[in-house]
Amino acid sequence: MSVRYELIKECKRTKARLGRLHTPHGVIDTPVFMPVGTQATVKTMAPDELKTIGARIILSNTYHLYLRPGHELVRKAGGLHRFMNWDGAILTDSGGFQVFSLSDMRQITDAGVAFRSHIDGSSHLFTPEISMEIQMALGADIAMAFDECAPYPSDYQYTEQALVRTTAWAERCRSAHNRTDQALFGIVQGGMYADLRVRSARELTEMGFPGYGIGGLSVGEPKSLMYELLDCTVPELPTHKPRYLMGVGSPDCLLEGAARGIDMFDCVLPTRIARNGTVMTSQGKLVVRNAGNAEDFSPLDPECDCYTCRNFSRAYIRHLLKADEVLGIRLTTIHNLSFLLRLMGRIRAAIRDDCLPELRAEFLAKYEVAE
What we know:
With about 375 residues, this protein is α/β, with parallel strands linked by helices.
């Protein structure tokens, strides 16, 4: 099998687990946060910089790469790894979420989704088979099944219909996928309804995917509801396969998700807020652009030893951001990704030592109060 999950240890006090994800492009310690490289690049970051801060797996986007530059061009380049000169692991999403969220003009049927490009308005059709064709051409280590993500809020009837379609599409993806060096993960849906979540998890588990994504959460619902749904969903998933909570990346959610047995996370949050001049610190979020930092010559976070914090002050970074200098958002991006990757390292160590509850309480006491 192209991707294999190795369970190392289960926490004695939570549902967290320590593991290793074996892929064609390296072994990844889990729980892990995956930086998002939507268009075959993590914005402002070079591949060697990602490796330096500890990234071993990144995510790229099927929808965006299909529209530009096109999956056939990437195939001709030797696949996504060679195209972007990244020798670590890559996960590609199915394109489903972007089809639903970025296209105002779309038509969903059992066959697939007809939509217009957000770039030029051209017409396209995504089906489970086309999603598989694109992802096999891209050649990531992990591909995701094409699913229907019900928006929040959605009524029970619509959400159940989306679940039925997601299950049928998962089976079609499994039939169409034939790249042996690429793993295909199923995606659990079911909206905000616990019984639908359990049903979806059971139906997908019966198909025997090598890993499972949990989609359709962190889409606007209260975090407490997301945690409740994780509590009922995760126990339905196999213990010997990886569990991936899609689109989640705030520090509190990483801690809470890991404590509930999640192995993989991804989110655009750290890079997106970095470009807006906001960083994560051990004392909570810091808006570097604010005037209060104009003469502050301390690092972004005195407890951080990333390249940015070792070398530059808040005042300097604020100057760069106000002057629209690219280095400013590069430095905030390096810091935010370093911060989350370091947090994941602390989470793994806490699981190993059976002290995750203490880390969670200590971290959130400072982070949430400051926010």
